[in-house]
Amino acid sequence: GEKKRLYAERLRTAEYFIYDPTTGGLEGWRLNGGGYDHPLKVEAVGRLWSQELGLYLGTWDGRYQGHHDRWLRFYDVHGRLVPT
Fold it and tell me: pLDDT per residue over 30-47, tens digit each?
């Protein structure tokens, strides 16, 4: 929508990710030319590779600050959870 277009056209952000905590859906795109027309491939374990960060973006089920939930987290190239 409008926010995605703003990030592509005005801010020229190299990658754009969206996460829906209700469904656990995670999507990402790489800027190509004038827009995000290159969707990132979801890996077998449900993670997306961020070329800009050199990390995977994915979910983690666990306890954080006293709350058990599904959290959006970073993983290294070996699939290890990056500490917060």
Answer: 999 889 988 999 998 999
Neighbours of 64 (CB within 10 A): 11
Bridge partner residues of 64 (DSSP): 67
What does the angle CA 19 – CA 28 – CA 8 come to, to the nearest 5 degrees? 110
17 to 55, 64, 67, 68: CA distances (angstroms): 13, 22, 24, 23
Nearest to 38 by CA among 16, 20, 23, 62: 16
Q: What pTM was estimated for this model as a whole?
A: 0.85
Residue whose entry in the numeric block shows the structure tokens 């829906």: 20
